[in-house]
Amino acid sequence: MYLFRNDYSFGAHPKVLEALSASNLEGNPGYGFDPHCEAAAARIKELCQAPQADVQFLIGGTSANFTAIAAFLRPWEGVFCAQTGHVNGHESGAVEATGHKLLPLEAGPDGKLTPALIEAALPAYEDIHLVKPRLVYISDATETGGVYTKAELEALSACCRAHDLLLFLDGARLGCALTSPANDLTLPDLARLTDAFYIGGTKNGALMGEALVLVNPALQGDFFRIKKQRGAVLAKGWLLGAQFEALLKDDLYFQLARHSNDMARKLQDGLKAKGYSFLFESPSNQIFPIVPDAILPELERICAFEVWGAAPEADHTVIRLVASFATEPSDVDGLLNEFPLP
Amino acid sequence: MYLFRNDYSFGAHPKVLEALSASNLEGNPGYGFDPHCEAAAARIKELCQAPQADVQFLIGGTSANFTAIAAFLRPWEGVFCAQTGHVNGHESGAVEATGHKLLPLEAGPDGKLTPALIEAALPAYEDIHLVKPRLVYISDATETGGVYTKAELEALSACCRAHDLLLFLDGARLGCALTSPANDLTLPDLARLTDAFYIGGTKNGALMGEALVLVNPALQGDFFRIKKQRGAVLAKGWLLGAQFEALLKDDLYFQLARHSNDMARKLQDGLKAKGYSFLFESPSNQIFPIVPDAILPELERICAFEVWGAAPEADHTVIRLVASFATEPSDVDGLLNEFPLP
Amino acid sequence: MYLFRNDYSFGAHPKVLEALSASNLEGNPGYGFDPHCEAAAARIKELCQAPQADVQFLIGGTSANFTAIAAFLRPWEGVFCAQTGHVNGHESGAVEATGHKLLPLEAGPDGKLTPALIEAALPAYEDIHLVKPRLVYISDATETGGVYTKAELEALSACCRAHDLLLFLDGARLGCALTSPANDLTLPDLARLTDAFYIGGTKNGALMGEALVLVNPALQGDFFRIKKQRGAVLAKGWLLGAQFEALLKDDLYFQLARHSNDMARKLQDGLKAKGYSFLFESPSNQIFPIVPDAILPELERICAFEVWGAAPEADHTVIRLVASFATEPSDVDGLLNEFPLP
Amino acid sequence: MYLFRNDYSFGAHPKVLEALSASNLEGNPGYGFDPHCEAAAARIKELCQAPQADVQFLIGGTSANFTAIAAFLRPWEGVFCAQTGHVNGHESGAVEATGHKLLPLEAGPDGKLTPALIEAALPAYEDIHLVKPRLVYISDATETGGVYTKAELEALSACCRAHDLLLFLDGARLGCALTSPANDLTLPDLARLTDAFYIGGTKNGALMGEALVLVNPALQGDFFRIKKQRGAVLAKGWLLGAQFEALLKDDLYFQLARHSNDMARKLQDGLKAKGYSFLFESPSNQIFPIVPDAILPELERICAFEVWGAAPEADHTVIRLVASFATEPSDVDGLLNEFPLP
């Protein structure tokens, strides 16, 4: 059974586990006020060339998304996101549960938002009987593996600033985005172009944890109080700091992400060679082949995957296959070998 | 420096760490739908003699408290708690952030609620311009280390049922409660007498995690959806299951708690012998000596502790000292040795 | 200047004003616990043939919508509505501000939901990482003047019951719906087929006020507490009761609505005769002619109306014209006379 | 039966009713964007000598309180109020339903907050595991009829500014406060010393309506969107403007309030002469005599009043008697005549 269902089926990279063991009996202060969190935050600010940023560790992506959005917005403000955005389709109404309306825009199959989509939507909200759009939520990589280029993010950032919109980037898969062949963005670019973004640990070698980088000074200050209020503070907070310390040492974080991308590309190339087409040719660690419904039972016997939805072609289904830091080349070869022809 | 600040300064018991390592590369399904969570939940139901219960793992105590309360209540319903209850004084308004009013009652220094306190408060709420009390929140052990007896919990449970109030027990320190010399309650008693309670992992040998036992069938059903919505679901959910499996094997959970209590009692006895009095003679792992303000600077040099508040005596302060699974007898001896006379 | 902007530009019908004056110095109990509210509620239950219903008066439509939805749902439950539904497009995120996600469905130009729309959407929500659809919000008449037939509402009601969905009907324009030539529903039908609905006063002869009929006993009970909590209780509550007493006497409510419909139809027929087409041929008091953009400036000089949106035809706009209880036949004749040709 | 239960048992002053009738068929724009609201707002800014203020009309006191608090605060911020404050004891958890924790302080029997109360409470909230106090809610007159002096409000205002706290004044009974013999404050003082306050109409001659004066520019801007979202916007918004126009013409508002105070003082003096003592000697339109429980049944036969709570003296009860614009001297004389001796 080949496991390509997602990038959180395996625990942590061995070096991360070692770091946890090493910190186990140190006797650290609680709630993230410890030397590990301090060192990891300092390293992140250095990598981002953003000394003024505030780095906050949270336990997971959904937490990071709704806590940040609830912290940033006033009650009458809404959130532009892609129809396919994680906040809209996978978080059980978490943003709405904080009182904010999501305003989904119809992005293309790569899941990326554009200034054109935003500017087409904005005029309707001049009506003061509606919520006021105030934040643009994007993910890099997107839900469907899309990766923003520097030109795209610069255009989006300029659009947001022109319209007094905050730009918040969900980086649950940021490692895979920044190491994708399609990418020309850097961490300092993100710090320059967004108001806040996070560096995802859960899906790239950590047991859990996201490092939220609050770049915009107006968003800093009392963040800990709302992080606590929304349940995103770990009592043993150093566990998050220690994991990010390990991941950010010797480029491990990016090595793991690059590996995930490589494994996914190898699989995508192999399937293409077998004659498969794709929802969208993904440049990161998730790929979306279109398969005949007839082979689904066979596929379920040989690998773990997710059904993504019906394909435009009749009797075909889009599936998702995801590679992770733990995917071995032999897993890819094995799956390609057993994968039926379309 | 002796570390008695809290019971979450150390990571996990070695057997718990081993279990995490062992599960690291198994390739488990996400979100808690894995064999470890299944086995741990089954074991908990067995220990509670509650086959009909629904066991849900959450990442921490604050999460468990507000997610459960938000799940159980309708918008106009309020929560009786002790003035000193964790939900009232330590969670940054987390329950109110879900829309519910806390209705604090003045408990004594042991932090325990009684039917008398509840019944004295109830009549005012017949006024329909107020919220309707619908849930009683208690902790065992309490914030000040108090431990409920079976007679006390039976009386409270009967009071709740008579007044159509749900009884919810915060068990962040349940291990220490159930292994306290003052205790005569069992897990099956809790399952019989409450509507829901949780078995705390974070403060008793786990890296993180609480096992919420939904006993009342009316509170079961869709709990996962709100757990997800409130950020309390770990993507790598098996991490919680695997830790509880390890803790519940061979009575480890209770051994660790008993050890914490023993260390705290040893410290309390030693301080009493030195002439100290206490806010309240605690039967569990937290103790509250009253110390002259003059020795605080010296204390800060020799040990980590928390200031709990001003003492009734002038120029005295109540401090909190907490023992944990990682406290060694030599730590207690060392601290007692260096602790100044009152 | 002919006023067709909306059906709330004028105050109350003279008989309603008289009732308010008559009650002015009676000295009534507050908050709706007075003989007028009692009598109006009794009359509504009688008209609905629903002796078991609970009738609650609220101050306005937005209040009625979000208070009812917040009262009916658990935090993880969502609301199916038409994309064009008032809750989705005109209430500044009021439902989301209570924590609930709206799940808009693409209704046709008449704004009506169908079992097919609901049943096509339902399967996706079996995924427990999403909110659980639990309530279907419809309006009769709809935002675009559409009116449900008995067969349609019966089908919708059966669909809701089959899928454990509550059916909630926004009746801000219920008078115009029930007196439309397209209608074959009665108040007892509504009480039989929905779980809750309201009889709108604001848009049909009252200064303000909606009468919410809670038919489903499971939705009754503590409603006053949440009505108070959400600001929908008037201190001088009898003002709402007295207005509904006046409106429901001698069929006044339905006469006013029938008049509004007649005026709108007269206008629609007149414009059709002039060569205009419509977004949708409305059977109630709102009509939606499609006009060339070139005549908009001229229209703005002669009448008050609302721009509804761009028409499918290039250089054309859909406008909304609304008749009310206060519209005179001479207003319609005058407007038709001055209305430019298309 | 003498009616002294509250100051909202009667409708509107005849001049207010006339204004409503006069505006009835004018055909006004909706939602408060009409000449009446404009004129009333301009008049209020003039009376307050606050040309920069934003005046917003809301339908009632509870709405005004929770909408303003929700608009002003960030999610982790809390509200100091008197234990007896209307937001804490009479609004069914409305503020908590917006997500904010109330932090009640123990005011004296006059219900007034002081800098000392606030400054004693503040230090505990430096703990970032708690909410951050950010707003002080006071009422003038208070729930028990207390009236702030200029010196008191200046001290409170200075305290708030020193501690970065917003000062919000609930003026549901502001007319009675400002016309009390105990008062030396003016509307311009309120505009200078608070961040926002409201001028209550409901309890002083209007059918309903409160005029919220947003003095602090940082609190202005998008207020309409949240007012709409929270159900506090009347479709026929001019009804509120027209009532305030009438009340503010020829000093009517203050005449009515002065009359209410006079009637209450006459009653208080008469009861004192009969030998009664009071919870607190009220200088405004609510008085709180302490009566032997034995006379309660007799009292219930002769007048409408509210039981306020048990008196310190055994077998005695504090009751509330309230005078309003509609109270006649003969009502007071009649009640005094029939009121039993203590």
From TrEMBL, chains A, B, C, D:
Superkingdom classification of source: Bacteria
Keywords for the protein's UniProt record, in alphabetical order: Aminotransferase, Pyridoxal phosphate, Transferase
Pfam family, one: Beta_elim_lyase
Names of required cofactors: pyridoxal 5'-phosphate
GO MF term list: transaminase activity
InterPro entries documented for this protein: ArAA_b-elim_lyase/Thr_aldolase, PyrdxlP-dep_Trfase, PyrdxlP-dep_Trfase_major, PyrdxlP-dep_Trfase_small
Residue ranges of domain Aromatic amino acid beta-eliminating lyase/threonine aldolase in the record: 14-282
Family: Belongs to the threonine aldolase family.
Protein name: Aminotransferase class I/II-fold pyridoxal phosphate-dependent enzyme
Species assigned in the record: Pseudoflavonifractor hominis
